[in-house]
Amino acid sequence: MMRALPVIVTALGGFLLQSPARVPVDLSKVGPQVGQRVPDFTLTDQTGRARTLESLMGPKGLMLVFYRSADW
Amino acid sequence: MELQGRLKELGDRGLGVAGISYDSQDILAEFSRRRGIAFPLLSDKGSAVIKAFGLLNTAAEEAVGPNKDDPAVAADVHTYVAAAGIPADPARIGMAFPGTLILDRRGRVMSRFFETPYFERKTVSSILTGIGGAMEPVGVTRVSTDSFDLVTYPSDSSVAPGNHFTIALEIQPHHGIHLYAPGASGYRVVGVNFTPQPIFRALQMKYPASEIYFFKPLKERVPVYRKPFTLLQEVILEGTQQSQAILRGKETVTLTGTLDYQACDDKVCFNPSSVPLSWSLSLRPLIFERTSRPPQ
Predict the structure, then answer these.
(1) Which of A30, A37, A70 minimises the CB distance to B106?
(2) Into which CATH architecture does domain B141-283 fall?
């Protein structure tokens, strides 16, 4: 019994030390895909007004542009 | 901001427009005032919505995190942070990957443009050209060959470094003529080849659906274009240091290349051929401006 213990500890240790390989970012896969419904949200715009997703819609839909920052 | 200039056109197409970033409302208010922005800029301070959309630029966070020396992390940091001129800085955590979603009224994604990193952004025209017909083309070139008539134009009359634009080629085969489409082996498939220049990089060519043609003389079935069709070739005007150095002081850029094709009629195939083409665009400078902030 005592003999077996170090083997088990090592095996466990090996399992715990192993972390999943980091997958490189594939930009075509990030974010909502075609056909998916995006989450609803409410955010403040530059005038301080609260805007829901619905309130931003035009008759045919919405172009929602994600950009890094207005600050640089 | 290019979007502001195209607002009316987007409105005419029935599309609302909104921008979203992790900036505070103060920063957005100042930016909006300074640039005369007439559409909503949403403040996602804390990045809750950016995260809910799955668009958090994780590379920016990893750039300052414990794994920053992991080669896989370093590679992505280079692509999604450093190459875009973003300093690896805790202040940049929370940024979104830049791109555009076109949503229908129910919030479903109709199209999306997130394919490339850096500060490359599809121009509004390029997006509109891609989703089917947009503005009056500017800088139109018309060519007629023995086999077809061609109308070609860039999606934008002006570009800034880092922008994508699209070259449209509207081809109308003459009566009885067909050109070869992707998948036609043994023939020269219709396509565009650009003269290599460090400032331009050809990205994807978007081919429309072709039809299968039974070519009697050789009893073979091949994918061809017989009816009028449009090729959309995406190009980027590089925003790299090298490119910006070349572009300094210039007011226009000219892209040159050839449209290569092979045409056949019902009986014979002609030799593969090429039409030389060029497209000129005015150059818009890249403007980096910081919103002025009170000293901390």
Answers:
(1) A37
(2) Sandwich (2.60)
